[in-house]
Design goal:
Number of helices: 4
Number of strands: 4
CATH architecture: 3-Layer(aba) Sandwich
Number of domains: 1
Helix content: 25-40%
Distance between the termini: 19 Å
Strand order of the largest sheet: 2-3-1-4
CATH superfamily: P-loop containing nucleotide triphosphate hydrolases
Largest sheet: 4 strands, mixed
CATH topology: Rossmann fold
Length: 136
């Protein structure tokens, strides 16, 4: 059975985790993934409280993995193309994400991907099979 928590509780837990992580690493690198149109680029802009990532409504805007930072902020966010339903696109995105994670893992710990933030469409009550596969 899943536990439902309020947004404020989630924010509080994330804040606690952030404070703990900040004491252990110089920066936090976040990889944002999810299907096309779920708001990944909007999330990037919200995290930085700036319009850094181009956004669109329900159509793919991000075509390659993009790295976003902001001076004075210890967070780096990697925005990814949306997970499409076509096999060729899925494989390309999967390969690019795996390469990024592997490449960052070869560097010192502060450059590793520390968090994967999987974005879901809040209007649907279920995961698509492709999303279930990605979460595995």
């Amino acid at each position: 059975m899943s536990e439902h928590i309020s947004f404020d509780e989630l924010l509080g837990k994330m804040s606690e985790a952030y404070e703990d992580a900040q004491s252990k690493v110089e920066q936090c690198n976040v990889l944002v993934i999810g299907k096309t149109g779920v708001g990944k680029s909007t999330l990037v802009n919200t995290i930085f409280r700036s319009r850094l990532a181009e956004t669109g409504v329900g159509y793919p805007v991000t075509q390659t993995i993009r790295r976003y930072t902001k001076t004075g902020c210890p967070i780096t966010v990697y925005d990814t193309p949306g997970l499409e339903l076509k096999a060729q696109q899925i494989e390309r995105v999967r390969r690019d994400i795996s390469k990024l994670i592997d490449d960052q893992r070869k560097l010192e710990a502060k450059e590793h991907i520390h968090v994967v933030w999987y974005c879901l469409n809040h209007e649907t009550a279920r995961l698509d099979p492709i999303e279930e596969e990605w979460l595995k």
